[in-house]
Amino acid sequence: RKEVEQDPGPFNVPEGATVAFNCTYSNSASQSFFWYRQDCRKEPKLLMSVYSSGNEDGRFTAQLNRASQYISLLIRDSKLSDSATYLCVVNAPTGNQFYFGTGTSLTVIP
Amino acid sequence: EPEVTQTPSHQVTQMGQEVILRCVPISNHLYFYWYRQILGQKVEFLVSFYNNEISEKSEIFDDQFSVERPDGSNFTLKIRSTKLEDSAMYFCASSSDGSNQPQHFGDGTRLSIL
């Protein structure tokens, strides 16, 4: 089983839509979770950390479900500039090693 | 805002040659990382470095690879005897507090092995 799994998409949504991505992780002892975005041929950029209680940053909401071992990202009121690949990142229980999902591709259409 | 910087942006090398990829992490960060991303594939962890030694490494990081912090600012990845399959984007990242804090990535070095 892969350490981190994501639906690769692509998700094609109209501007203003709400879209949600899920990510599952295999090791229940993982403690740190993040969402990054990656534009084509660019470096990953931190979107947000994911906290146990869930957290929100503007139009973005992240949730963690430890019992089911998944994290989610909700994007409200999608903008054209949200078009990117969204990467789920989870740390290995040993601490200082990180696993990336394959990414979920989002295209926001005018 | 402080940045992680990487040089060169693109490196073209003959198979069998050695390459050194360079990174300057954010100045007050203590944890440093190297990742690679083969075109069209996911980002893969190579190695993490803390307190002047490797803290963790993946199966990819075999004897062909080494890392070094030769001075107070640079963090390098050396790849010996390069192979065609080493062609990828290599990202350096740093963080202030290991697994508890997010990593900040440099904009990568594209390595092309001919």
N-to-C SSE string of chain B, H for helix and E for strand:
EEEEEEEEEEE
- Which radius of gyration of chain A do the C-alpha atoms yield? 13 Å
Q: Please state roughly what percent of the residues of chain A sit in beta strands, choosing from under 5%, 5-15%, 15-25%, 25-35%, 35-45% or over 45%.
A: over 45%
The count of β-strands of chain A is: 11
**Mean pLDDT over all positions of chain A:** 94
What is the overall shape of chain B? Answer: globular
Q: Specify the helix fraction band of chain B.
A: under 10%
Mean pLDDT over the full residue set of chain B: 94
Characterize the largest beta sheet of chain B: strand count, sense, and whether it forms a barrel: 7 strands, mixed
The rounded distance between the terminal residues' Cα atoms of chain B is 37 Å
Biggest sheet architecture of chain A: 6 strands, mixed
Q: Most extensive interface, residues per chain? A: A-B, 24 and 25 residues
- Given as residue ranges, the uncertain stretches of chain B (5+ residues, pLDDT < 50) are none
User: Which structural class do the helices and strands of chain B define?
Assistant: mainly beta
Number of helices of chain A: 0
The proportion of residues in beta strands of chain B is over 45%
> How do the SSEs of chain A run, as a string of H and E?
EEEEEEEEEEE
Coarse morphology of chain A: globular
Radius of gyration of chain B: 13 Å
Written overview of the protein:
The complex is a heterodimer of chains A (110) and B (114). With 110 residues, chain A is an all-beta fold. Chain A is built from no helices and eleven strands. In chain A, strands 2, 4, 5, 9, 10 and 11 form a six-stranded mixed β-sheet that branches. In chain A, strands 1-3-8-7-6 form a five-stranded antiparallel β-sheet, with no helix packed on it. The N and C termini of chain A lie far apart (38 Å). Chain B has 114 residues and is an all-beta fold. Chain B is built from no helices and eleven strands. Chain B has strands at residues 5-7, 10-13, 19-24, 31-37, 43-50, 53-57, 65-68, 75-79, 88-95, 104-105, 109-113. In chain B, strands 2, 4, 5, 6, 9, 10 and 11 form a seven-stranded mixed β-sheet that branches. In chain B, a hairpin with a 2-residue loop joins strand 5 (43-50) and strand 6 (53-57). The A-B interface holds A 31-32, 34, 38, 41-46, 49, 87, 91-92, 94-103 and B 31, 33, 35, 41-45, 48, 50, 55-56, 58, 89, 91, 98-100, 102-108.
